[in-house]
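Recall from the previous chapter that SMILES is a line notation for molecules. Here it describes zinc ion.
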Amino acid sequence: MPKQMIVGVDLGGSKINVILSDSSGNIKERDLRDTLAHEGPEAVIKRIIESIKQVASGADIAGIGIGAAGACETSTGVITLSPNLPGWHNIPLKDIIQREFSLPTYLENDATVAALGEHYFGGGVGIENLVYVTVGTGIGGGIIIGGQLYRGASGSAGEIGHMTIDINGPRCNCGNIGCWETLASGTALAREAVRQVEAGAQTTILNFAAGDPRAGREGGSTKKVSAQSVFLAAQDGDRLAKELISRTGYYLGVGLVNLVNIFNPQLVLIGGGLSQMGPLLLDPAIKVVRERAFELPARAVRIEPARLGADAGAMGAVALVLQEKFS
Ligand SMILES: [Zn+2]
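With both inputs in hand, we obtain:
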């Protein structure tokens, strides 16, 4: 392992998280700033460069890894498209950063690198076959087979949030119908909560939406109810909120059954914002896997919360440099 430092960049739709780490994953410096994605690619790239300069100042750097919230063509280092970064079409981010710093630079999708981060530094250390699932606004993931990232033919493997779970289900942002993330994401949970509230269900969920400065009832609408409002209500003992989270967990489990049957992993790590719901979400998911997956893979797999939290992307970007440059 190199003695030099590594820069890890997590480019998200709302935050840019940049860290300076040694090769064991000890974070030495960090810079977190707003992406301000609406200002477009040029302004965002300028902020990334400033942020890297901030953390890397004076350090001996082996390379820069980037995990980006979008579809990345890894062979060219181009972000082809991003639903969370308006205006990002075919942006050669890897080349731009490499030219700016004259350092080896690597680019991958953020959920994919988070899987690698968990494998190198988090809950998946020493585990050769694992699936990482991030559940937040949508669902993303990464697959490690034999200790290596599985990228597929064009680098897009791991779009697990868009496996079809219900062919008659809700329409997905991707254009397809009944994708996993239309049923088991934070967005899906909030949508169901709004539907129940508007139907007049007995629940305290709205009280917790009103506690959020961005939330509340606008003209009688309850559209600002978030997954977080449902979680807070559930923690406060609200029966409907608990049921809604349990239902989301059930659908999470249905997708996990497919992953467990296909990949026979030793470990499935659940990260992303919804993983903070803990057993309320994970217990129903694990129950479905025990009931529905094939016996052998169901017996072999552990399903646990991921460990790297909000740093998963940036730590994953550090791991990407280690994997690409040093292994
Ligand atoms: Zn989809």
